[in-house]
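Wait, can you check?
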Amino acid sequence: MSTDTPGIDPLLALRAPQDPACDVFLTGTVFLDIIFTGLDSAPVRGTESWARGMGSSPGGVANMATALARLGLRTSLAAAFGDDHYGEYCWDALAQGEGIDLSMSHTVPGWHSPVTVSMAYEGERTMVSHGHEAPAPPAVPGQAPTAPNPAFPQCPPRARAAIASLVPGRSEPWVATAARHGALIFADVGWDETGRWDLDALPDLAHCEAFLPNAEEAMRYTRTDCPRAAAHALAERVPLAVVTLGAEGAYAVDGRTGVSAQVPAIEVEALDPTGAGDVFVAGFVTGTLADWPLADRLAFAGLTAALSVQEFGGSLSAPGWAEIAAWWQRIRTCESQDPTALERYAFLEELLPTTARAWPLRRAVPTIGFRQ
């Protein structure tokens, strides 16, 4: 983790005494991620492959929570944790290492932590996961019964924003509750295994401030053959439609004003794409809560995602302000840098400290359970 990140609060100028204590609330499943890197090719059946690098870190929804916290947002996570060593490690890494509020989370006795093994090679990743759904926590006398899925609370804390993952045919009551209490809902979506690709099958979309699918998902849901056309179609359903375009960057439409923006991706040598989508969303949420112009939000989200893929792991790779400051200092001194491209990120000047550590940065050694 980035233990010496400058103490930058991107919302400092906007904070008021009556504001909620929580900037962003999210919920989901925390995995223990074990990541192998430095593989020259995919593992071959019947052989043993050796990786040149390995890391371990909290994964799953922890990727997003860590990315938000490292960008200076006060983050609250509701999740179930196993009472095994893996669960203890993930809890400590998030609460003590990243400063994430886990007061809405709970430990489940006798339940083992879900685990994902990720192998990164040729710019892609292959994952194998194992886990069981967490049992509901025991009922407390005098309190309402818990939601069917124990990871999703019925009464989330007041927050400026909340992040949801939409699933066709399923509604999570906490999303409507959070929106009713003033939270801006940011949502992504996974592949529709039903093959219907029906926006009406995403009931919680009606509560969303922003919807952030990738290009393929956006085109399938809108029956269009162009990501930009898909974004405009989605902007008729949500105030902010953001379509990620992979190597081409991202395109967004503000349905309230009609303003659109496209920002190209930053070309980097990708080590591991794990968690890059989560980091992109975290960057966009940060810019939105800070009330930046739409193009600046896209640029910042793309920058944070680009920095993340140069490290391995999901939450391990999420950049903080130290990484962003070091990148900005380095990129301005490159003689071959296109002045126009540099201008796209000039808004960082007011946010970042005048001095930064040298690039590249090295993060803490990522592993489980070094004893002090």
Notes: Residues 1-5, 143-150 have pLDDT under 50 and may be disordered. The CA atoms of residues 113 and 163 lie 23 Å apart. The two ends are 17 Å apart (CA to CA). The first helix runs from residue 61 to 70.
